[in-house]
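Morning - aspartic acid inputs below, output right after.
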Amino acid sequence: MSSSRLIVMKFGGTSVGDASRFRQCAAIVSKALKKDRVIVVVSAMAGVTDLIFRTIDAARHGDSENTESHLRTFETAHRRLISELLTGSAAADAECFLQQVFDHLRKSAHALLALRSDISAQTMDSLVALGERISSWVLAKHLEQSGIQSAFVRAEDAIVTDANFGNAAPEMETTRAKCQSALLPPTARGVVPVVGGYSGATPDGRITTLGRGGSDYSATIIGAASGADEVWIWTDVDGVLTADPRICPDATTLPQITFAEAIELAYYGAKVIHPRAAYPAADADIPVWIKNSFRPEAEGTRITRSVSPVASPVKSVTTVKQATLITLVTRRDVHPVELWGRLFLRLGQEQIEVLFATQSSPEHALGLVLRSEDAGRVLKLVRTIFRIELAQGVMQPVQVNNDVAVIAVLGEAMKGTCGILGRVFSSVARCEVSVIAVAQGASELSICFAVPAAAAAQIVRAVHDEFCANFGASIPVCLRPSTQALSGAQ
Ligand code: ADP
Ligand code: ASP
Ligand code: MG
């Protein structure tokens, strides 16, 4: 049995959206078990994590009406799931388990309502992880009822993290020891361990979460720690596409991409994989498949270290729809590098990600393009760090443009291919949209630019039409002379 391959399968929120989706998960696991050993990682039912966040938010603002309404929605959705999916003692056990979880959420929400207090990041993590706690418990029960031996494993018994609540990082050594003792022995007996995604715990047992969308990350952490042969991420699209299909209905599935491309794509808004999920798999050299649980027969996208060359240098066009541009301008008679250095140090300490930065006019203006959710914190930092410079007029008042979107054009093959920038900006110009800021990474893996937010979808479609409309077809590319010499291309 243990000579068979070990596959970690992660089912995302829509793949466990209701009772029929849970049945589909069981069918997928059952098929895989004919050949392979399987560990399952599962997200909360679609919308549930958002609902917990909204419940807590309403409670801490003293909004009892919305708190109660969100709590009712949470309870009703899970009771319906249990009644439609489980029967007999399994249903009774599940009702009991749900009641415990729900009581915990309700009591915490009521305490917040009464105190109107803020909530610590640690308590927040223990609550927002509850959606996965229920879905994984119910899926384990459902697999059992479907004749598949399975075992519910608490996420904190598999993944050990640092204490960076809300955005924790795994401690791989201890995680490896936990996964090997909690997950591998059952698989060797033909039992499927089922673990809730998104969370883990500090070495002293405090629940943490891995950032929104973190169940993908859980899957690759568990894959690397258990020595899995492959990780399969089941979602609601056929794989990684040339663009978000909600924006470009004609986007096509990429058969293969590299880990580096997956990281870049996710960082610049392709929700299909968590931005950090590729790292554990890349480190352990474990292929990751993105597959559609609604169409399991579709091949999916394979993510590995290297892939065969494709005709189009651009593989995908992504967007971060809500971004903010903060512009800082100093007087011309100061040397601003020291000022920018202080700022970037603090951004690093606060773990704030800059989507891209531009520096122009011999260093006197710095443009920072950020996710809008981080803009408030960055503005506060800027006004604190540069209090004196702003007061003395060494730095001009901070300029803020909250109305931008970032478009990223991605593909490893762009490196060494000339003419890409020209084609990108010609397609933007045809939309009569002006570009606000531009950056091309030194890796040449991506070109990023900011445009007015309202134009984002139109620009994604225009750039996608330019490069990816016939993704499979051969598109002539022109290589730079230096690259030609290296590759011997004509
Ligand atoms: P899950 O709940 O399974 O984790 P997500 O909603 O997190 O699924 O991610 C899947 C979604 O990612 C898709 O429904 C799609 O709209 C979106 N998406 C954005 N960009 C891309 C892309 N380039 N390729 C595929 N999906 C994308
Ligand atoms: N449920 C969590 C979220 O919505 C994690 C995940 O689904 O990946 O962010
Ligand atoms: Mg996701």
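Note: DSSP finds 17 helices and 16 strands in the chain.

O.
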